[in-house]
Structure formats: structure tokens, C-alpha cells
């Protein structure tokens, strides 16, 4: 397949080999789940069902997202985009995960789009989890993340039967479901593999697997050139994911993904041609397969809440209204990264000493490690906000007061920064994030804090970045140097390009249109 590492959430769930092997065995075991009558599994409105008019080339695609938000959100958005173009789209997921995007699907069905959700029951008791703990991104510990992943594997027989019953014309599944290629062959329909990542990153991973340049250096700190790429890209061995350096159960699982990729009809990426034209072309060459770039998928729905009359305004947005243009640093490390208290202290001091106003999102569980009196100081000085829980990231990044984004380089966050022209301060942590940092360097849209160790998972930190490195990156990005001005200009120009790709005639819209046309043609040309 391809280097599906982009969401190596599975990494934090599984760097124990025995756990992985057991989970792979569980893929093929049946699970006792409550089977709902078919019509009750669909969450759709009467308007939706009544407006379905079958035609000779009526196309039906099932979308199967991985049970973690960074993979689920973009694939759900893909389903919505296809439905808006008249393609009957069915999203298959578990009951509690469906709640995360139910409101969006309800709006689409109310608008007459042929989209629905088909839910199955997550095997909570079988994996020892409380009811409702169904997403890897919500797991507070590595052990719980592993249990969620095992539950996802155990759902394979249930998912397979649901797809058979739905009789779709195509399966568009997350890369973490390699078995869907066998099911597609059985049903004589195409299977498309969804990659929530860039072609740039996928090319790097492919060449690391094939050429293994990291095996030719003598230490973790030594740099090497990734061969056979359109540009000279260097990495340190320490920045390479462990499964690519050492034989592990996780690596064995990825081999299954790569094999399934080879047999898939094609790849669908949440990226866009304009940021990586040479790498899109190179990816098609080295993979010898069809590739469609249809992102940034979230951008098709920017402003949706406002358009639907949502008037509640998060408090941080009101605070941003009172700040100077391009002055605020937004710090957020995604839904997965878990920093130790020692690192939290360094981040807190760096933000305070930078003299820049900031918003720092720390997650639902809150954090330890804040310096004594920190909250009171930043509040009394009105220099920042620490948000515990959810924050409206898209709205924050498009606010005119935001001038920089301190980020873990997760791909969804990277796309949002590009679309809104916000320069980034890169702090990659694990998985594909170091590759994403390299793309930032190539595009000239950010600076780094100096991280150079790819962690085993989002739950382990092998390197503490001191406050000085973080503060200096902030000061460089917000300063008046030639470098800072160039970064801001590059970010602004990239945002202009990004906005055009989801407009009619844009590259991503063209790829979506072409893919739909091709799938319709395949439907009318039965496979033997």
C-alpha cells in the first residue's frame, strides 16, 4: 500500500509486538454485536429517501473511516462532497462515533443530498472498555487506545456484512482497513484507498521502505538524503518512524496495507496539486496507480456554521477581536499528542516570555506542569488564554489577529494553516509529522523549534524542547527580519492558491469530477 503512516495513531496503540499480533488475529474472529434491522441502521431523513431517484448510472459509494478523528473527519467530508454532487454516499461507523458528525449529515440530507450513516455497535465489553469509548483519539492512555484498535479490528466481519448488504458500486476505505480490497474483489467493485496525507510524505515513506537510506548511517543523529525524489530532502535517522527501522508487529501490519494498496483501484488523498505538483506526478510514477487529490476537504465546508445560523461565539474569538492584527500565536498540538509535565512547563514559560499574545489549547483532560501562578499572571496581564477542551481551530486560524501557529504538524492542521495563510512553528512529534515539517521548509512557510526525535507514539516524549528554542522560533516568526517577511509572503500566496482549488475549475474539484465520471463508467462496465 502506501505509507499510511500519516495516521500512525496505531503507533501509540501498538508498539507492543504481541499486542499487534493478537489484534491481527482478532481481525478474523467474529464479534457478538447487536444487529439492527437494516432500515434502523440508516440515519437519514424522509426528504433524503424520497428524493432518491435511481438512474442507469446512479452511483453508490460506501465510506469506511478509521475510528480516530484525524482520519474520520476528512473521510466524512469526502462523503459529503460526493453527496453534494449527486453520488449516493453511505458512511459506515459505530454508534458513538456517528454522533461526531451527525449534525453535518442532517444538514446535508435536509438539503436533499443523498447521504446517510449506517451504524454498528462497537464491541466494548469484548475489549474491556466502557460504552462510548470508541475513538482512538479520545483514549487517555496507550492501553485504552490499543483496546479501541482491537475493537476496530474485531468489527471486520460486521463491516463486511454491512457492505455486502448495501450492494455498493465502490468502497472508499481508510488505509487501515486492508481487508476491504478482498471484499471489493468478491463484490467485483473498485476499492479506493483513502490517505489523509500529502503526496510529498507518501513519496518519502515509499523511498525509505524501498531504498532504506537510513540503514547506511552510523548514528541516530546522522543525516542522510532520501534518494529518488524531485528535490534533495534530508532527514536524520532519529526522525524516521521506528517501524521503518526495526522489524515490529506494526511494520508487519503496514506491509499488509502496502500489499492492499497495490491491488486497489487507486488512491485518494486529502491534499491539493498546487503545493506539490512534482510529488503528485512522482507518486503516480513510483506507485504505478491512479491518484486523485481532492483536498483540502475541510475547505468545502468553511463557514458552514455561520451559514446555518449558528450564533454562539466561543470566548476566545471575542478575545481575538481585541488583539492587534497578526499578533497572536495559536498553540495546539492536536487530539493525540500528550506532553509530560516537564515539557508543559517549558511551553508555558516560552509563550509567556515571547511577549506575544497567545491562545494555547491543552485538551479535555487539562494539564499539570504549569508554573505557579501562571493562569493568574496571563489573565491579569491579558496576554493569553489557556483553553481546556475543544477550541474552534478553523475559526481561530482565519481570524485576522492570528499571526502564527505552533503545531505538531498533523496533516489536518497543516492544511488549515495553508488555507488561511498562517505561518507555522513546527514541532513534529511522531508518525508522518517530520515529513510534513520538511514540506513546510520546502514551501518556505514556517520555522522549527528544533525537534528531531520521532517518538514511538503520541504518549511518549523522548525529547524535551527547552523554552529557549520555542521562544526563539516565535520571535523569529513574528519579527521584522527578511526571513520572517518572506515566510509571511509565501504563506499569503499559498493561501490564494489553496482557495482556488475547491472552486469550480480548480484542481481538486476537477479531480473529484473526473473520479465520479470514472466510477460511473466502471459501474456500466461490469467486471468479469
TrEMBL record:
<dbReference type="InterPro" id="IPR002213">
    <property type="entry name" value="UDP_glucos_trans"/>
</dbReference>
<protein>
    <recommendedName>
        <fullName>Glycosyltransferase</fullName>
        <ecNumber>2.4.1.-</ecNumber>
    </recommendedName>
</protein>
<keyword id="KW-0808">Transferase</keyword>
<keyword id="KW-0328">Glycosyltransferase</keyword>
<comment type="function">
    <text>May glycosylate diterpenes or flavonols in leaves.</text>
</comment>
<dbReference type="GO" id="GO:0035251">
    <property type="term" value="F:UDP-glucosyltransferase activity"/>
</dbReference>
<comment type="similarity">
    <text>Belongs to the UDP-glycosyltransferase family.</text>
</comment>
<dbReference type="InterPro" id="IPR035595">
    <property type="entry name" value="UDP_glycos_trans_CS"/>
</dbReference>
<dbReference type="Pfam" id="PF00201">
    <property type="entry name" value="UDPGT"/>
</dbReference>
Amino acid at each position: 500500500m502506501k505509507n499510511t503512516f500519516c495516521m500512525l495513531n496505531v503507533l501509540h496503540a501498538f508498539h507492543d509486538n504481541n499486542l499487534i499480533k493478537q489484534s491481527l488475529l482478532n481481525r478474523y474472529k467474529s464479534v457478538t454485536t447487536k444487529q439492527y434491522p437494516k432500515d434502523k441502521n440508516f440515519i437519514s431523513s424522509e426528504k433524503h429517501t424520497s428524493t432518491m431517484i435511481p438512474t442507469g448510472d446512479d452511483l453508490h459509494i460506501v465510506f469506511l473511516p478509521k475510528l480516530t478523528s484525524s482520519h474520520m473527519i476528512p473521510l466524512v467530508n469526502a462523503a459529503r462532497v460526493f453527496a453534494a454532487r449527486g453520488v449516493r454516499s453511505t458512511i459506515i461507523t459505530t454508534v458513538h462515533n456517528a454522533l461526531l458528525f451527525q449534525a453535518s449529515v442532517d444538514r446535508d440530507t435536509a438539503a436533499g443530498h443523498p447521504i446517510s450513516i449506517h451504524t454498528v455497535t462497537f464491541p466494548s465489553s469484548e475489549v474491556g472498555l466502557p460504552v462510548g469509548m470508541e475513538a482512538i483519539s479520545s483514549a487517555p492512555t496507550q492501553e485504552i487506545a490499543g483496546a479501541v484498535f482491537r475493537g476496530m479490528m474485531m468489527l471486520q466481519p460486521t463491516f463486511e456484512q454491512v457492505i455486502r448488504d448495501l450492494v455498493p458500486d465502490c468502497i472508499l476505505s481508510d488505509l487501515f482497513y486492508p481487508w476491504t480490497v478482498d471484499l471489493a474483489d468478491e463484490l467485483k467493485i473498485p476499492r479506493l484507498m483513502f490517505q489523509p496525507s500529502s503526496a510529498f510524505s507518501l513519496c518519502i515513506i515509499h523511498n525509505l521502505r524501498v531504498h532504506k537510506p537510513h540503514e547506511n548511517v552510523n548514528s541516530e543523529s546522522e543525516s542522510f538524503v532520501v534518494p529518488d525524489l524531485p528535490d534533495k530532502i534530508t532527514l536524520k535517522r532519529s526522525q524516521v518512524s521506528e517501524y521503518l527501522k526495526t522489524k515490529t508487529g506494526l511494520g508487519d501490519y503496514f506491509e499488509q496495507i502496502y500489499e492492499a494498496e497495490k491491488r486497489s483501484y487507486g488512491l485518494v488523498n486529502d491534499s491539493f496539486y498546487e503545493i506539490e505538483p512534482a510529488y503528485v506526478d512522482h507518486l503516480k510514477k513510483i506507485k504505478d496507480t491512479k491518484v486523485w487529490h481532492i483536498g483540502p476537504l475541510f475547505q468545502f465546508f468553511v463557514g458552514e456554521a455561520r451559514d446555518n445560523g449558528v450564533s454562539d461565539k466561543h470566548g476566545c474569538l471575542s478575545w481575538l477581536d481585541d488583539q492587534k492584527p497578526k499578533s497572536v500565536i495559536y498553540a495546539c498540538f492536536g487530539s493525540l499528542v500528550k506532553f509530560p509535565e516537564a515539557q508543559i512547563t517549558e511551553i508555558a514559560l516560552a509563550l509567556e516570555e515571547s511577549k506575544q499574545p497567545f491562545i494555547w489549547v491543552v485538551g479535555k483532560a487539562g494539564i499539570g506542569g504549569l508554573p505557579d501562578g501562571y493562569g493568574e499572571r496571563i489573565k491579569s496581564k491579558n496576554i493569553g488564554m489557556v483553553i481546556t477542551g475543544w477550541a474552534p481551530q478553523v475559526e481561530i486560524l482565519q481570524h485576522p489577529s492570528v499571526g502564527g501557529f505552533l503545531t505538531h504538524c498533523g496533516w489536518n492542521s497543516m492544511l488549515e494553516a495553508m488555507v488561511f495563510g498562517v505561518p507555522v512553528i513546527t514541532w513534529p512529534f511522531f508518525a508522518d509529522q517530520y515529513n510534513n515539517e520538511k514540506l513546510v521548509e520546502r514551501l518556505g512557510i514556517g520555522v522549527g523549534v528544533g525537534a528531531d526525535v520521532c517518538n514511538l507514539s503520541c504518549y511518549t516524549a523522548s525529547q524535551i524542547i527547552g523554552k529557549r528554542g520555542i521562544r526563539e522560533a516565535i520571535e523569529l516568526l513574528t519579527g521584522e527580519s527578511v526571513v520572517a517577511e518572506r515566510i509571511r509572503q509565501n504563506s499569503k500566496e499559498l493561501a490564494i492558491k489553496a482557495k482556488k482549488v475547491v472552486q469550480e475549475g480548480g484542481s481538486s474539484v476537477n479531480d473529484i469530477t473526473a473520479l465520479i465520471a470514472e466510477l460511473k463508467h466502471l459501474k456500466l462496465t461490469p467486471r468479469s
